[in-house]
Amino acid sequence: MTIDEEIFARMGELSPAEKKVARVLLASWPSAGLESAAAVAKAAGTSTPTVLRLVTRLGIGGYPDFQRRLREEVTHRMSSPVSRTQQGAREHAERPVLQAAIAERVGLVEQLAASVPPSEFDRAVEALAGRAKQVAVMGGYFSRFSAELLATQLDQVIPCVDFVEQPVGHDIGKLLRLCPGSVAVVFDFRRYELTAKQAAAIAKGRGAKVVVITDQGLSPATESADVVLPVPVDGLPFDSVVGTIALVEALVEAVLLATGSRGIERMKQWEDTVQIARAHRGAPDPAPRPSTGPAEERT
């Protein structure tokens, strides 16, 4: 488990002063952890001993060890897909590819329970299920596909859901409709994108609640977040979306359960209106369409 995962996992055990330190660290992770203990304490409005107690609670011997481990984690997280693939190929050369790939992705889903704090997940569900005026969901170059899946499924459970493909481009109007009582969900993963940080800041500035779904390195967009859901993404040759998809499906399921009959009614209305055609064995042939042109001669 990485340091920030440890902090998230132990948040409920921390004293009020230690929680202040934890929030300062996570809000500007990982850069805040590379500051001196005194600087972190000043930013949190606590004392240097409080910072050191938090480090000890994480099972780390001292602040120098904390920073050394943090630098190692940052180096690993920010490495390119090429370097991670080269390293992974050496490590897994003796293992059957399919079995190894499946085992690693099962592991990512299992890690999800530890990486996402239940309290943060519950806050995200509460925001989405609480009759939001508008829900704007957006992602980056790769994460847009996960964002679009969340938007598509949420739209069948709650109203007023928008997928924002270019939040600071031609879709800026969807962001400008956000207001107090609205929710913005921002996906952003390592090799983070400036547009995610900008979109989160715009949404926050308009009074919307901001939910950021990111990896354990924590996107800069978390600076504007009310809720942060960190997902394990390690994979070869690229970061895996398995954990992200599992989180998306869990969110949609939880929102449906939280909305109760309201969500079920929305699903019924959605299906009745869209009239999704489901192909199944033994289905009757569709009725012939009326001819719009001259009748064909029968021979």
UniProtKB/TrEMBL annotation:
GO terms for biological process: carbohydrate derivative metabolic process. PANTHER family: GLUCOKINASE (PTHR30514), RPIR-FAMILY TRANSCRIPTIONAL REGULATOR (PTHR30514:SF18). It comes from the Bacteria. Pfam families: HTH_6 (PF01418), SIS (PF01380). GO terms for molecular function: carbohydrate derivative binding; DNA binding; DNA-binding transcription factor activity. Residues 278-299 are annotated as: Disordered. Keywords: DNA-binding, Transcription, Transcription regulation. Residues 1-77 form the HTH rpiR-type domain. This is RpiR family transcriptional regulator.
